[in-house]
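Anyone able to model this chain together with zinc ion?
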Amino acid sequence: MLYHIQQIKDMFIERVYKKALKDLGDFYGIKRSIDPPRVIIVDDRKTIDLLKGKKTGRWLVGWTDGRRSVYILNRANFKKESDHTYSKEYYACLIKHELSHLFFSILSGRGVSARWLQEGVAIYTAGQLKLKKRPEKLISFLNYYDTDGDALYSEAGFAIEALVKKYGKEKLLEFIRGSKIVKSQKQFNAAFKKIYGFSLSYAVINKIF
Ligand SMILES: [Zn+2]
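re: yes, here you go
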């Protein structure tokens, strides 16, 4: 498959990008200069599907290659090509979310990690919680260890916020760093317990949520 790609100028995206890299560098404590990530704007659903190698849902508007590139649907085509309502704030958060995944991936040594942790941290660091409805209780995010689903996006960010508020950012970063050696869900749960001193459950998280 062939693609045509060229550099573009977009003052808004450039501003969002710079600010996001600064904020994320501060949050993750990654000060050494990382290779500047590439933001690749994709025009339409057809190209998204080709790049992803599968038919994607209209909810999918951004993703990363886990290394150096983030892919984002062209904001001019949001209405036509996705389910989301475009706003500048939504779009800025989306870019920051995808960039956050790249920082997470560096910190975790590209190790295996629960999907709820990856998405939760991306949502939390991107400032997307203010755009989401706060659930009354967290009831299903823990089911998403290696699968995708709605609760990932509606609950996981709030779970991370609760952990950070109660136990601090450093513990969370320590836990993410520990992903390097995690090879299974069992090891993931054990690593959590070792760092936090308790097993994660809905009962525990809802107490601090
Ligand atoms: Zn994500």
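The two ends are 47 Å apart (CA to CA).
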